[in-house]
Amino acid sequence: MVQRQKLLLGASVRRLGSVPTGPSTTKTAKRIPKAALHQSSTTPKQYYRAYSQLHRSGQLKACASALRRVYDRVEATSALKRRAGDRLALLLCQDPSLRQPNELQRLLVEGGYAVRLSDAVLRYPLDAPKTSIQKQSDRPPAGTAHAVDDALPLPMLRKLQVAFGADSTFWKGHTYRCGASPFFSYVHRLDEPPRCSLDRVIKRLQKHAAEAFPLVKAATRAEWWAHCRPHHTGHQLHFDSDDEGRGGVRHPIASCVLYLSGGVGGPTLITEQHAASRPPRLAAAGWAVHPHENRAVIFNGSLLHAVIPGRGSPTADDETGGRGALKRRVSLMVAFWSSIRERPGEVPASARPFPYEAASSPANDFGDGGGILSARNSWPRLFDWPPGEDEGGEGGLLHRSNAASTTSTSKPASNAFWRVEPIWEPVSKHGDVKLPMSMPAYEQCFQGF
Q: Is the predicted pLDDT of residue 23 greater than 70, yes or no?
């Protein structure tokens, strides 16, 4: 199976306390009375559930209060204490105004951490640096990362926003829950004519990728997957790899992220660290870029990268990201490979062949009232619109007379990046840990998400 290897420099697959939230987890974000957080009868688990709800509604001060009560009331060996400590430490890293004296240091030391993601990473600027103050040396060097704005024609983008919208059958058909679902992806051939609309999308992204990574032009396969993340949810540092590195580590030529929503979630972080770096050391620097609707970010497939949890509150209201507490950071990822083995199977998993027959077949009634079986059968049809609708043709979202104004005029967006340095900071309260340092144990690296 072709899978993104969720590794921190070769460590085993692991998530540090991912919050299992998905597109349909919560329909409303009710405000919890503050008095409820101070009742002596409230249990640690109730406080933790309150934290999750408060977080979705942006009540960060109350979040910190709820997490402190969990952390202080449960045993040191409790998994709940570990989760609460990590969540609280992340809140304090991203918003110093919530900190109590020496609190962050104490949480990280008691958690056994030697290093943590730096303030430059977790407290990223909410607005990208202005072009006028950027230096050429702050931009990613050639062969590292590249960005394109207005990557797709607007009608094609709108089709994808419907297909991957927060309430789409795509997510139900894969029983998707952000941070909890097993990884799944689909493989398409690039050496044959397009067979569905998603093939045409991938071809356009391949063209953008080849401008920065010429070897992508000769790629024979593309593997894609998608995510629909709540604003405060991130994705730990990892490498994209084939079959999680089993049988030898292989990386794609390049990977591409297409943002289908904007103003929701944190930036993508791409570090300078390669999987084959010798001797292995923690990344010293990298580059970040904010999610912006219809922006494509392409980067070297062997680089360590992550999604940073969103700070504050999301700013966008759109059909894909949702509204209020339901807003989502929606993205489509495509990895370009010189060769890759497809792995057929009945249930969603990595490197499945794309179900072309289901995409063009009529709906089947599974008698489950529009449940998972029906969704699993119907979602491929989301990618079966006619070629003439890619740019607003007859029968599409826009009439032909309007097509000229909606055709993508893609343009490089290298100024969207800013340099991030350092990536890591030492935790030692005595300051006796110096960076850069050789590779610490995975459990000693605090990412907080």
A: no
Confidence label for 57 from pLDDT (cuts 50, 70 and 90)? confident
The single-letter code of the amino acid at 15 is R
Percentage of the chain beyond pLDDT 90 is 60
pLDDT at 22: 43
Rounded to an integer, what distance in angstroms lies between the CA atom of residue 449 and that of residue 306? 10
Answer yes or no: are the C-beta atoms of 230 and 266 closer than 8 Å: no
Q: Based on the number of CB atoms within 10 Å of its own CB, is 444 exposed (0-12), middle (13-18) or buried (19 or more)?
A: middle
250-262 core/surface letters (b: 16 or more CB in 10 A; e: else): bbbbbbbbbbbbb
In the chain, domain spans? 7-125+426-446, 131-417
CB atoms within 10 A of CB 175: 16
Strand order in the sheet with 254-259: 352-353, 186-189, 221-230, 328-337, 254-259, 296-300, 145-149, 411-412
Residue among 159, 155, 167 nearest 198 (CA): 159
* Contact predicate 418/267, CB 8 Å: no
SS3 content of the chain, % helix, strand, coil (to 5): 30, 20, 50
Cα-based distances in Å from 238 to 86, 145, 213, 328: 19, 16, 21, 21
- In 3D space, the residue among 322, 208, 311, 199 whose CA is nearest the CA of residue 261 turns out to be 322
Considering only residues 60 and 323, tell me which one the structure prediction assigns the higher pLDDT. 60
Bridging pattern class, strands 328-337 and 2-5: unpaired
Query: 154-198 pLDDT, tens per residue?
Result: 999 999 999 999 999 999 999 999 888 888 999 999 999 999 999
Nearest to 131 by CA among 429, 445, 414, 419: 414
Tens digit of each residue's pLDDT (9 = 90 or more) over 102-149: 999 999 999 999 999 999 999 999 887 655 446 777 889 999 999 999
Lowest-confidence range among 34-38, 139-143, 169-173, 331-335? 34-38
Q: Would you say 290 and 331 are in contact if contact means Cβ atoms under 8 Å apart?
A: no
> Which tokens belong to 319?
């059909």
Alpha carbon distance 49, 26 (integer Å) = 13
Which superfamily is assigned to 131-417 in CATH?
Answer: q2cbj1_9rhob like domain (2.60.120.620)
How confident is the model at residue 76, as a pLDDT?
82
Q: How far apart are CA 73 and CA 288, in angstroms?
A: 38
Report d(CA 306, CA 375) in Å as an integer.
Answer: 30
- Position 206 scores a pLDDT of 98
Cis amide linkage into residue 353, ω under 30° from 0 = no
